[in-house]
Write a structure and sequence with these properties.
about 375 residues, Alpha-Beta Plaits, three-stranded antiparallel β-sheet, 14 helices, about 60% helix, about 15% strand, elongated
């Protein structure tokens, strides 16, 4: 009877105690979260219940499985102890990651709720994302190293590994030069505030939005839903346009090539009407002016403003479309024309009279004899 009750008490007691502690911790966190609505930390910490129970259960079993008195457990004591140790180390790392993620995400949520400036929120979100990735990489490395050191063969090889660490570090640094460069570039982007999640950028002629930033690469989502993946070192070594830098407001230009007879005052009135009816215009400023001229056309530029890059694109398209349609309907003569007929020469008698007047002036050179 004792051979049956002892394993049940040891193993069952460990499981029951684990479930009770997990339920008690979850209830306390739920009550604390109900009392403190200003911070989401306590609610996020409830996600640590499973790794906490796994840590507690593996620790209890690791210390008590020898007391069960079961023969096959005693015969495989070393292997079972090794497995429980590995589970304890892995679950501890999982618990640390969950706690760190809860603390970081709750801090970001409180900052985002209290800050109304979108640029600062995007900057903090970028930093939080990269901090979480760095913490995950560090904890993962430590967990793997701790697991390897539990094996006797790895502990015996530790001295030789430390002796050759300098040479291995140099070789690894040379071999992973580009990877390490991207790693440090990612940290520079996160804390140097060069580019943030949600920023509108132009890279290699492609217009898009920063969708993801990691320690090694950066993803840009273009207007047509494509994803451009680039190494983060590109943004620290090559020039690029950041339309969200210093504020999201944008100024856009729309160019028209029109005939010299275009009604510019009426075009200004029509442009003002279009802007007042378009929700993308932010009301800051607008203008319409002739910026260049050619023998056959005028270059007219309309300048408009909007609150961000998406609205400025929509506004430019609306202004271009509606002004051209208005000119085509009410002032078709203002659209550019291509002359296809022969040029009309001046009358012969008028040309002779003008030539005679030039010869009668003092200093006239007389009739020309060169052939044109």
């Amino acid at each position: 009877m004792e051979n049956v009750l002892r394993p049940l008490i040891v193993l069952g007691g460990s499981v029951v105690l684990t479930l009770l502690v997990g339920a008690l911790a979850d209830r306390m966190l739920r009550q604390t979260d109900a009392r403190h609505h200003e911070t989401p930390l306590w609610g996020m910490l409830r996600r640590c219940r499973v790794p906490l129970q796994l840590v507690l259960c593996s620790a209890l079993l690791r210390g008590s499985f020898r007391q069960t008195g079961v023969d096959w457990l005693q015969r495989h004591e070393a292997g079972i102890g090794q497995v429980l140790t590995l589970v304890l180390i892995g679950s501890t790392g999982w618990l640390v990651l969950r706690i760190a993620a809860a603390v970081v995400e709750s801090s970001y949520a409180r900052y985002a709720a209290s800050t109304h400036e979108a640029a600062r929120v995007r900057r903090v979100r970028t930093q939080v994302t990269l901090i979480q990735r760095v913490v995950t990489a560090i904890v993962g490395t430590v967990v793997v190293a701790a697991m390897l050191l539990t094996f006797p063969a790895m502990r015996a090889a530790g001295a030789s590994l430390l002796a050759s660490a300098g040479v291995l570090g140099i070789v690894a640094g040379v071999a992973a030069q580009s990877t390490l460069g991207n790693l440090f570039a990612g940290l520079q982007i996160a804390f140097g505030d060069m580019v943030r999640l949600g920023d509108t950028v132009v890279v290699n002629g492609e217009w898009g939005t920063i969708e993801e930033i990691t320690l090694t690469f950066l993803a840009v989502r273009t207007w047509d839903e494509r994803r451009i993946t680039m190494p983060v070192s590109y943004f620290t070594s090559q020039p690029f346009e950041n339309w969200s830098r210093g504020g999201a407001e944008m100024t856009g230009s729309v160019y028209f090539h029109l005939d010299h007879s275009a009604p510019l005052p009426l075009m200004r009135e029509k442009l003002q009407d279009i802007l007042h009816e378009c929700p993308s215009w932010d009301g800051r400023s607008w203008s319409l002016a002739v910026t260049d001229t050619t023998p056959s056309t005028l270059q007219v530029r309309a300048v408009v403003t909007a609150k961000d890059a998406s609205d400025i694109f929509t506004l430019r398209c609306a202004v271009r479309e509606q002004l051209i349609a208005w000119l085509n309907e009410h002032h078709p003569y203002a659209l550019p024309r291509v002359a296809t007929g022969p040029a009309v020469p001046a009358p012969r008698d008028a040309w002779e009279a003008e030539r005679g007047a030039d010869l009668s002036k003092p200093g006239g050179t007389g009739p020309r004899t060169d052939r044109g």
